[in-house]
Amino acid sequence: MTIRLTPLTVSTLLDRVRTEPPLVQCLTNAVVTNFTANVLLALGAAPAMTDIPGEAGPFARAASGVLINLGTPHEEQRRAMLEAAEAANDAGTPWVLDPVAVGSLPVRTALAAELLALRPTAIRGNASEIIALAGLGTGGRGVDATDDPEAALPAALLLAEKHGSVVAVSGPTDLITDGVQTLRISNGDALLTRVTGGGCALGAVTAAFLAVADDGGALAAVAAATAVYTVAAEPAAQASSGPGSFAAGFLDALASLTGQDLEQRLVTA
């Protein structure tokens, strides 16, 4: 089925997040936990940073969606991530893999391979991370991409086809593909790259949107999450004087985003 990402599609899913608040379990990196939780709260979702073995699995069964972000994967958290992914799969809980710095660092690269075998619902990363995750490159400069999103499209298609995941590649124009159809969204602002968690929090938002998606609607949900996140960055950037005021303004913009904002700003292809 061909999906058209319209402002109405996006605002419908955003309304569901606000009226049926999903509980999003975040196994994420230590640098971004506060910002990620605040982003989810601004949208209307409920965050839970449950990331220790023995609790991560049972919580994943009860959660509406799960984020696994490999930003600071210490040993205990790595075990919790595998536990959560296995439980999410068993319970049918949608989960998102954010392969931070995969390819350039060995421990997380090996962990990512184990998690991929558990078939994430969605994979979200920058172009270099997606290329490395597919085994077609060695990664970027740490957490920074050295590749263009269009260059990552073959890798994204490969991951989608092999693992049954929706793959989102971030950049000036975001690419979202399920292996059959590819959507492009050209919104956002460079200030997102100057706030800690500006990219990582999108993984949690993606999990929230997947949690309220219709059956078979993963592609639309991932694209809608990206659209809401990047559209909200634009008025926040216009009203800010730099990264600090942008971070606060971005939370406000997420909380106040309307269907009219999406109608006026959303740029898709």
Largest sheet: 8 strands, mixed
Helix and strand composition category:
alpha/beta
Q: Termini distance? A: 17 Å
Q: Helix coverage percent of residues? A: 40-55%
Helix count equals 11
Task: List the helices and strands in order.
Answer: HEHEHEHEHEHHEEEHHHH
Number of strands: 8
Unreliable stretches (pLDDT < 50, length at least 5) are none
Estimate what percentage of residues fall within beta strands. Answer: 5-15%
| Strand order across the largest sheet | 2-1-3-4-5-6-7-8
**Radius of gyration over C-alpha positions, nearest whole angstrom:** 17 Å
Mean pLDDT: 94
Rough outline: globular
If you had to describe this structure to a student in words, what would you say it looks like?
This protein is an alpha/beta fold. The chain has eleven helices and eight strands. The chain has an eight-stranded mixed sheet with strand order 2-1-3-4-5-6-7-8, with helices on both faces. Strand 1, helix 2 and strand 2 form a beta-alpha-beta unit. It starts with 6 loop residues before the first helix and ends with a helix. 57% of the residues are buried.
What is the element layout, followed by pairings?
Elements: H1 7-19, E1 23-27, H2 33-43, E2 46-48, H3 56-62, E3 65-69, H4 75-91, E4 95-98, H5 106-116, E5 122-126, H6 127-133, H7 153-163, E6 166-170, E7 174-177, E8 182-185, H8 200-211, H9 218-239, H10 243-256, H11 259-265
Parallel strand pairs: 1-2, 1-3, 3-4, 4-5, 5-6
Antiparallel strand pairs: 6-7, 7-8
Family: Belongs to the Thz kinase family.
Cofactor: Mg(2+)
Pathway: Cofactor biosynthesis; thiamine diphosphate biosynthesis; 4-methyl-5-(2-phosphoethyl)-thiazole from 5-(2-hydroxyethyl)-4-methylthiazole: step 1/1
